[in-house]
Design goal:
CATH class of the largest domain: Alpha Beta
CATH architecture of the largest domain: 2-Layer Sandwich
Number of domains: 3
Number of strands: 20
Helix content: 25-40%
Shape: globular
Length: 447
């Protein structure tokens, strides 16, 4: 097993990884920008190294600085967390070339799944159903229009090299396509350095369902059930739950079987998430994330399996500590993402946390690096906390969510806690009758 792991990330995920390492008897190295010198993961790590000024490009995306920090501290492995360099195949390869273990998938698999066009083609070859779309990137309006006629209107324009809603546009006719295609290409180029876009059929009322998989270097692959991530705003997830309220046991087993079979063919190693759109009883592959997900705690809550611990063990060459028959879905879990944003305008709200009281009690987990007196910097993602609740069934889970949200106090900055309180009382959410477009309409409802 590793003796020292460098955590190439920040915030709640860095703290999450630190905790897993400490429970395994592994020392940790925190890297940080000058804006994060008082961050919780920096204060708790065995060692810390400043890797640059606040802008991410000069610190958390600074590959030479991170590799230098690993060298000077003698770290024998790097965990990239999520975001930043977590799905950067070049960085993963550099880490391994320096004789340091990469706690994640192979660089080849990261690169394969990082290009959405290649990922979709690969998924089809592996027997995963895919959304009808263009065979590859479309370069101009004429080519795009021909593909749209074949696929059927409306179509979704998507960036080949990224996600998170960037470079994504819906065109309902050829006039909209002509106007939106260059916009999507420009946005894709600006955010991902790759202007390539492709087309998919636009589904009008799908659920967003994802399957958590784990694979080791011994050929073992398991799935840990699914998560429902359909509550989204601007293609950004806001709340997730496991299991999905719309899937039955047979459908869940079939979806898991497809995911495991595909990953065995691929020879996949580490944690990964296969994401689908689900509508009218059909599943369509949309992408695969080759890292741990923000929402992984809901899966941990219902399975009792520590996903980050398994990632570390796999990277050290150990086989999975369990098999598929050992995986049991126990009860229901919901994760509410708490962002430092105004709950109605969604404007970022960095600043000093003047009060902080986290909820507790049976079935309540908080993944957060906040503390009273901490200053949330303006330079990074607005996610500051994840509230995870677990109950024996969905009804108990919802009651626990409402209670925990009432207890949660974060003073000095605006957060999305009031929005989550509205959601937890919404009839459509209570009955599970929602899709990926529902939240946008809900947010705009008069109160």
């Amino acid at each position: 097993m590793f003796e020292k792991v460098l955590i190439a990330n920040r915030g709640e995920i860095a703290l999450r990884i630190h905790r897993a390492c400490r429970e395994m008897g592994i020392k940790t190295v925190a890297v940080h920008s000058t804006a994060d010198e008082t961050a919780m993961h920096v204060r708790l790590a065995d060692e810390s190294v400043c890797i640059g000024p606040p802008p991410a490009r000069d610190s958390y995306l600074n590959m030479p600085a991170i590799l230098s920090a690993a060298a000077i501290t003698g770290a024998d492995a790097i965990h990239p967390g999520l975001g930043f360099l977590a799905e950067n195949a070049r960085f993963a390869a550099m880490v391994e070339e320096h004789g340091i273990a990469w706690i994640g998938p192979t660089p080849q698999h990261i690169e394969m799944m990082g290009d959405k066009v290649v990922a979709k083609r690969t998924a089809a070859e592996l027997g995963i159903p895919v959304v009808p779309g263009s065979a590859g990137a479309v370069s101009d309006v004429a080519e795009a229009e021909a593909e749209a006629r074949r696929i059927g209107w409306p179509v979704l324009i998507k960036a080949a090299g990224g996600g998170g809603g960037r470079g994504m546009k819906v065109a309902r006719n050829k006039e909209e396509l002509a106007r939106l295609l260059p916009m999507a290409q420009a946005e894709a180029k600006a955010f991902f350095g790759n202007a390539e876009v492709y087309l998919e059929r636009y589904l009008d009322r799908p659920r967003h369902i994802e399957v958590q998989v784990l694979g080791d270097s011994h050929g073992n692959v398991v799935h840990l059930g699914e998560r429902d991530c359909s509550l989204q705003r601007s293609h950004q997830k806001l709340l997730e739950e496991a299991p999905s309220p719309v899937l039955d046991a047979a459908t869940r087993a079939e979806l898991g079987k497809i995911a495991v079979g595909a990953m065995k063919k691929l020879g996949y190693r580490s944690a990964g998430t296969i994401e689908f759109l689900y509508q009218d009883g059909e599943f369509f592959f949309i992408e695969m994330n080759t890292r741990v997900q923000v929402e992984h705690p809901v899966t941990e809550a219902v399975t009792g399996i520590d996903i980050v611990r398994e990632q570390i063990r796999i990277a050290a060459g150990a086989p999975l500590s369990f098999n598929q028959e050992d995986v049991r879905i126990n009860g229901h879990a919901i994760e509410a993402r708490i962002n430092a944003e105004h709950p109605e305008t969604f404007h970022p709200s960095p600043g000093k946390v003047t009060e902080y009281h986290a909820p507790g009690g049976l079935g309540v987990r908080i993944d957060s690096a906040l503390y009273q007196g901490y200053t949330v910097p303006p330079h990074y993602d607005s996610l500051v906390s994840k509230l995870i609740v677990h109950g024996s069934d969905r009804e108990e889970c919802l009651m626990r969510l409402r209670r925990a949200l009432e207890e949660y106090v974060i003073g000095g900055i605006s957060t999305t806690i009031p929005l989550h309180q509205r959601l937890a009382a919404a009839p459509e959410f209570i009955t599970g009758d929602y899709d990926i477009h529902w939240l946008e309409a809900f947010v705009g409802r008069p109160r």
